[in-house]
Each structure stands twice: as C-alpha cells, then as structure tokens.
Amino acid sequence: MLINNWYVAAESTDVIQGAPKRTRMLGFDFALFRDSTGKVICLSDVCAHRGASLSAGKCDHDALACPFHGWQFNGEGQCISIPALGDTRVPKRARVDSYPTHEVYGWIWVFLGDLPEDERPPVPELLPECLDTEHWRTTRMVVEAPVNWTKFEENSLDTAHLSFVHKAFGNRMDPKATIVPIERTKYGARVARERTPPPPGAKTGKLAELLAAPRGKTSVQLEFSLLGLCHRIQPTFRPGMSQVVFSASTPIDPFHTRQFGLQARNYAIEPEHDAERLAGRKQAIDEDIAVASTVRPRVGPTPFTDEFLTRADEMESIFRSFVIRMSDAGWEIDYDRVAAEWDRKVYVIPCPARRDDPKNWVHEAVPTTKPRNPDFSWRTLAGEEGQRARLPKIAAAE
User: Fold this and answer.
1) Which of 17, 137, 365, 381 has a beta carbon 3.0–4.6 Å from 386's, enabling a disulfide?
2) Residue 146, CA distances (Å) to 140, 261, 281, 335, 339 in order
3) At residue 45, does pLDDT exceed 80?
4) Which of left, alpha, beta for 57 (phi over 0: left; psi -120 to 50: alpha)?
C-alpha cells in the first residue's frame, strides 16, 4: 500500500455536520467530520493523549472532541482545549495528523501522505459525462472486495478475461485480444480496443431490447491513473450508444479493497432503469471478485519474473511498473512491521505538516519497506524519465 496518493474515503452524503465518521484506509483508521463551513476534515483517528478513537467523539463547532477526556482537535489536527487543565496553554505537541481533502463526483478524497501542496497533483477528473445530466444518467455503487488492491485494479485493466469471466458481455467464441499501441499518460495509460459482442440472449432487460438488432464490434476505451488509483472504461455498443464506468479503489488493508464506482449511460436515461443497470454492474463485480479472490500470491505487486506475461497483459504491466517504482522510492508501507507492533505501538500515515516540523509529534510516522528517496515525486513519474521507463520483456502474443 502506497502513501502520498489521493484515495476516496467516503461518499459525500456519508459525512454530515455534527456526526464524525470513522473509515479505514491503508490499514489505518481515520476520523472524518465537517466544520462549520461544510469542509471535510480528515484526522488520524488515534488521540495523542491516551489513544482513544476520535471518531467516537463529538463535533464541537470546528473541532472534534475526544470521547475519553474531551480534548478538542481543530481542522489542522492541533489540540485547542484540554478540559482537565482549564485555561492552561496547550502545547504544540498535543496534535494529530490532518490530511488534505477534496470533494468531486460526490466522493470525499483524502491525500494520505506528507507531500507539500506544490508537489500534490490534483484529483483526476475523468468523468465529465456526470455533469451532463441532460444526456447522461449516472448511478453510484460502493463495494468491498476480499482482494488486494493491486490484484483488483489489474483485473479491471485486463480485457482478455472478459471472454471467460463475464456472461453478459464476454464472448468465448472470439477470445483473441486485440494487440494495439498503448498510449502512456502522465500517471497511467490508455488504450482503445474492439471486441466481438456476446451472442444474442446474453443481454437481458432494456439493454437486450436496445441491442436486439445485429451490430458490429463493440469499441472499448480504457484508461487508468495511478494518481487517485482510478480507471475509466467506456464501451460503445453502436454509434451514439455508450456508457462509462469510472471507479476509484481504496485499499482497506493488504487483503481488502473498497471500490467506489459511477456508471454514466446515454441510453435509457429515465430513472426507472437505474435498478437494472445497478444489478448488471453488481453481477459483473461479483464475477470479478469470484476469480480475483483466488489469485496467488494474494498481495501485490507481484514481481514480473514470477509470472509469465504476454503482450495482452501490457496495460496491467504498465500499472504494475508504476507501483513498483513508487515502492522502490520508499512510498510503500511496511505493513508486516506495522501489524507485528499493532498492539504495542501507534504508527500513523505522515501528513504534510510533518515536513515543516518532523519531530514535534507524539505518534511515529509509518515505516516504509525501503528508504524514502527525497528526490522522487509525482513529477518524476510524469516527466520524460517516467515516460521512457521500459517494461520488463514480456512474451509476444503471436
């Protein structure tokens, strides 16, 4: 699991003023609440005093009060009141980590890391369709999968599995993958492929009715961004008839992933068709989980040399290469060490304020699997060096 990235913490509607919410990301707990302006605050959930869960406390104006002794922490994570000490000045060290937040698509994104503002790229905005409510209808879904985040994301980028895993849109009669050039982007890649549609009868409901007439191949555009750990999949069934699935994944821990998904469609946009579309989406996700949850090794990224990869796996390989580079730069959490010491020591994801004052904290920043490279940043991935990065040799498809 990687620090210094944007992750979706919750749906916007899940965090209301006056009611803190607890959520787990990257194996750690966080407290979410809204201040008096409606801005979402995200704090480390462990009180710096005696270790109570802040999310079990109460909102007091623009602060969150610990349920144990009433210590109040503001939006910057600084304690502003210690009731047991009366009017005594609160020491600066009485604070917890506070993380940048941003709301878009009806999701609350949190930057879990210590990069300063000028080194934090903005949240990817890959779904303009959801803003066009006249021509597109959007539905929402959140699922939790007993699958490691790298395995879950690689599954989403894998177009070769469709013929064998998905009943509604796979076609075993024509499973050959289309090998086409893949375009590198700043923090990911995109590709456009064509697939033979499933045989008549595979679709049900309104979609089956709309696609009853003979049609040509389905074109599928696929794009992912490691920034935000998200991807966009857009099949076009026939000219003018399309849908977009935009998903953002958040590692709960090494073995579980929470995926926030939006599906926008420009057909059957009346609300009465939402339930059918959600059911179709749920079926596809369940089919993915049924297979991805059996993959070994359970935790990624898997070394390239430990699997026999082909050119049909190139999108997944590019994703994995980004993850490995970030791990090599010291952004991967040493979860084995954290788990071994969980009951005796508190580690936290470091927040940006630690860059200016790295020592004046109660809780220690989480250890990483490799030493931090101070020269590595998102600019490194987006720059010429990152775009020239070659994949390990993989087998030819032919």
Assistant:
1) 381
2) 20, 17, 18, 17, 18
3) yes
4) beta
